[in-house]
Amino acid sequence: MNRSRYLATLLMASAAATALAAGGSVAQDHDPESAETHYRLFIGDHAEGVVRAIDLEDSADAGTFRIDLTPALTRSTSGRTIFAVQGEAGAVAVIATGIDVEDHGDHRDLHVTDARLLETAITGTRPAHVIEGSGTIALFDDGTGSVSLFAENAVLEGAFDPVVLEPGAAHHGLAAPMGDYIVVSVPHESPDAPRVGLRVIDRQGAPVGAVVPCPGVHGQAQSARVFAFGCRDGVVIATPSAGSEPPVLEHISTAGLGEGNVSTLKGGTALQFFLGNFGPAAVVLIEPGSDAPFRRIDLPTRRVDFALDPINPRNAYVLTEDGQLHLLDVIAGAITQSLQLTDPYSMDGHWRDARPRLAVAGDHIAVTDPRAGLVRLLSIDRFAQERTIPVDGTPYTIVAVGGSGADH
Q: Which backbone phi and psi does 117 adopt, to 5 degrees?
């Protein structure tokens, strides 16, 4: 199937499903005009251990949470929790977002309460990647190679008692839960050498099948029930099997794309695809199941950050070092609009230098601007800056949580 037709077909199926769901809600007398929407931003400071929460609608302060170090922020699938990973401090703080969208089948209810820093303290030698799949959260500890498995409810209820597996030696790794199995990175025999690949283990930590080569494995994302992992020579696609069989891992080479590799991935929601980085000034669309699974899109300058839109499934947003924000149409595989948003942020220097980060919150894009001390809010419909939110300190990492529900 033609690549653009492949995604377009999925898009039409998604739109039909959305329309059917909306029709069901109306039939049950839940007036869409009475729906309530609420989004909340969580912003990690670059200079100190602080996470600040801001309500999007009125820019109101929704909480300031002091932790040990500048965090990497990962939100749960439900959006009820955010994990603030501080690897060098050996800690992961957990923030209850106060946003809970409860699914009732024919409609959803939105519950908004205060955000709070949970008493549950997750510690380790060097905790790193937090990945959720099949209702399980996996925390990989680079310092030990161990994997902690737990449910989000356990953290929220103060009953944190993870199952800890030790599938291999210490390394900068990852673990992705897939049903009754977990896909884990495999370290090199030398601790100073890059990861060699991926393998499947069961819930007791026992290996299942052979190692699938994925040199220097780094970065992962989930789209539908499929995971993708970045390698120095391609990607590995992990597809669930029927019944109780383990997932199937398949390596796909990117040799035909030229110089570069995938090390950061985002997964589509309504459409099954992945968007990854590829070298410093390109991104690649990855479409499992397509005759030609890769489409490389070159950027005008080097890439700073990128994000997918969970509500508008054909939209992706890419910020480049010249301060321009680009709208990427994933169906067409092309940039359709560009906007000068910030001053330039050179990609020279350390990878941890303070540079803008993106998050999508409903019908807005939120972009941190560390040097200006702002979060810039853009209207997706108009693709224009709508307003700015001043933020104390040096705003850096950002995630958004929220949604819509019936107003009772």
A: -85, 120
Return d(Cα 144, Cα 253) in angstroms, integer: 30
Residue 352 CB partners (closer than 8 Å, separation 6+): none
Contact 404, 58 (CB under 8 A): no
Cα 241 from Cα 392, distance rounded (Å): 48
pLDDT value at residue 216? 96
pLDDT tens by residue, 53-65: 999 999 999 999 9
Q: What is the DSSP letter of 12?
A: H
User: Which tokens belong to 110?
Assistant: 């939105």
The CA–CA distances, whole Å, from 53 to 17, 215, 281 equal 33, 38, 32
CB atoms within 10 A of CB 23: 10
What value does the mean pLDDT take over residues 133-150? Answer: 97
Q: pLDDT per residue over 296-339, tens digit each? A: 999 999 999 999 999 999 999 999 999 999 999 999 999 999 99
Residue whose pair of structure tokens reads 């890769």 in the numeric block: 294
Neighbours of 118 (CB within 10 A): 17
Instruction: Single out the residue of 280, 279, 237 nearest to residue 257, CA to CA.
Output: 279
Q: Distance (Å, rounded) from C-alpha 278 to C-alpha 258?
A: 9
DSSP state of 88: G
For residue 92, what are the contacts with CB-CB under 8 A and spacing of at least 6? Answer: 83, 84, 85, 86, 122, 123, 124, 127, 130, 139
**What's the pLDDT tens digit per position in 192-207?**
788 999 999 999 999 9
> In this structure, what token pair is assigned to residue 265?
């991935």
3-state secondary structure of 221: strand
Mean pLDDT of 236-248: 95
Q: Is 50 exceeded by the pLDDT of residue 5?
A: no
Token pair 């944190």 in the structure block, residue: 160
pLDDT > 70 in the chain, percent? 90
Backbone angles phi, psi at 86, to 5 degrees: -125, 80
Q: What residues have CB less than 8 Å from 175, skipping those under 6 apart?
A: 129, 131, 138, 140, 147, 167, 182, 183, 184, 185
Q: How many CB atoms lie within 10 A of CB 77?
A: 12
CB 237 within 8 A of CB 200: no
